[in-house]
Amino acid sequence: MGHAHRLARDPLGFLVEARSGDAVAGVRIGKRSVLLVNDAEAAHQVLVSSVFDKGGPFMETARVLVGNGIITCSNADHRRQQPMMRPAFRREQVARFAPVMSACVEEALALWRPGGRLDVEERMYALAAQVVARTLIAAPAGRQAADAMATALPVLLEGMFRRMLIPVPLLHRLPLPANRRFDHARAELERSVRQVITQYRQGQAPGGDLLSLVMTSTDEAGLPLGDTEVRDQIMSVLAAGVETTASLLAWTLHALADHPAVEAELWAELDRELGGRAPCHTDVPRLSYTRRVLTEVLRLWPPTWMLSRVALEQTTVAGHTVPAGADVIVSPYALHRDPAVFPDPGRLDPDRWLPGQVTAAQRQAFTAFGGGRRTCLGEHYGMTEAVLALAAISSRWQLRKPPGARLRPLPRFLLTPQAGPLITVRRTPSQDARRHRPEETR
Ligand code: HEM
Fold first, then answer.
1. Of the chain's two ends, which shows fewer C-beta atoms within 10 Å, N or C?
2. Ligand 1, CB cutoff 6 Å, lining residues
3. How far apart are CA 3 and CA 165, in angstroms?
4. Mutate which of 153, 244, 291, 374 to test ligand 1's pocket (most atoms within 8 Å of Cβ)?
5. 35 near 42, Cβ under 8 Å?
6. How confident is the prediction along the chain (442 residues), in pLDDT tens digits per residue?
């Protein structure tokens, strides 16, 4: 199994340790030999160079779920797919989605009660699933699809992680309970996605939602996407857009519970800019501290903690020969914790991202959204959603850690927080958030 055991037991420790060695290090996962790129400049080269394509253990496993969609397709297919997907993620389009995002946030917050114990991961996941489902599919079927997704995605992501770590296909076909759960979740999600595509083809597309935009876009030859291609794109957006933002928000709420000074600074901005009203899309550019908090959380706990590529031909990275066909891994988690680039890397310091402070080396090392031609298409969408959600939550609620609670990263297909519930305390916006103490209602 090579390094698979160590990678399975403590993957983050393993990656950080590997970073302190060579710029490029070889590891073994099962029969595969994988190159870890540990240096920001070399990582940048891998992400921007056309010699490296999507591939490697992460991508091959992801294809089980998302087929040949935009996340997993080769660069050659990407040249056709990306221009067809891009319009749905433009800034003006995200501005149209923002009221849907805000409505989902308000609906979610309406269920919160003071003194309650909140499973933050679960709530943020449910919120992000609603946002993606309703912006993707505005038709009533969107609600059903959202429910199908909320149930299926965690099972699928867990199953994909297992498939990546233990790349023995036969094992994953055995009638074991975990395999049955995976197959069932995949079939259910597949069924609801196919149903929605059929309805849209039959003229029930409401227009203006992500799916309508994707289904009406055409390539250079004037051809639209076929049903299987549309299915792959829906699966891709679900896989890329739900747990990433959910994890970012969950990490942020846990981090704020641990860092009162950052929380106070955030309240000061929210109280000054919003004065207690719900945030809307036009507030987003002014909520600069809110955005810096989110960016810093992405640095410390990037949901996509590993990016995988394959070398199409023999090449050189940081003086090391990379043979054709080699699997290459870039870890944003490890790059973001390099003390040579981010001094005191374990410290949560949103002001690292102040325009005058951030260095070119830090920008290059920051790979939470990937890099090069395959950079996250949903970055603006995801950050808008996260700013709106965090601003709405922290304006009105403080989340406190119960005594003795421990926060640990859970590296699976994505990096999610593993912690107990947080306690909800209602807060009233104040003119001076620094002196303000929220009132514990129960
Ligand atoms: C904070 C939230 C998010 C993070 C941290 C994130 C991170 C990433 C990363 C690292 C990649 C590149 C993967 C690679 O190079 O292998 C990526 C790609 C992608 N993401 Fe995101 N993402 C987020 C939110 C979203 C959202 C909300 C959506 C859609 C609703 C989305 C859609 C996509 C798509 C379509 C791609 C493929 C881009 C391409 O290859 O052209 N992402 N994301």
1. C
2. 70-71, 82, 132, 236-237, 240-241, 244-245, 248, 298, 303-304, 307, 368-370, 374, 376-378, 381-382
3. 10
4. 244
5. no
6. 456 667 667 889 888 887 777 888 888 766 777 899 999 999 999 999 999 999 887 788 888 889 999 999 999 999 999 999 999 999 999 999 999 999 999 999 999 999 999 999 999 999 999 999 899 998 877 677 777 877 888 888 888 888 877 778 888 888 899 999 999 999 988 898 898 999 999 988 888 899 999 999 999 999 999 999 999 999 999 989 999 999 999 999 999 999 999 999 999 999 999 998 999 999 999 999 999 999 999 999 999 999 999 999 999 999 999 999 999 999 999 999 999 999 999 999 999 999 999 999 999 999 999 999 999 999 999 999 999 999 999 999 999 999 888 889 988 889 999 988 999 999 988 755 444 444 433 3
- The residue whose CA is least distant from atom 41 of ligand 1 is 374
How far is Cα 11 from Cα 328, in angstroms, rounded to an integer? 16
Is residue 389 a contact partner of residue 249, using CB atoms and an 8 Å limit? yes
CA-CA distances (angstroms) from residue 412 to 111, 161, 202, 304? 29, 6, 39, 10
CB contact at 8 A, 417 and 250:
yes
**Vertex 53, ends 299 and 246: CA angle to 5°?**
35
CB atoms within 10 A of CB 439: 11
Ligand 1: atom nearest CA of 132 is: 30
Q: Tell me the helices (H) and strands (E) count for the chain, helix number first.
A: 17, 12
CATH top-level class for 4-426? mainly alpha
Using CA atoms in the order 194, 197, 203, 208, what is the torsion angle rounded to 10 degrees?
150
Tell me the residue type at 331: S
Distance CA 227, CA 215 (A): 9
User: Which atom of ligand 1 approaches the CA of 332 most closely?
Assistant: 10
Structural domain spans, the chain: 4-426
Supply 2's token pair.
């090579």
- Please report the atom of ligand 1 found closest to the CA of residue 304: 10
Secondary structure element (H or E) that encloses residue 213, with its range: helix 210-216
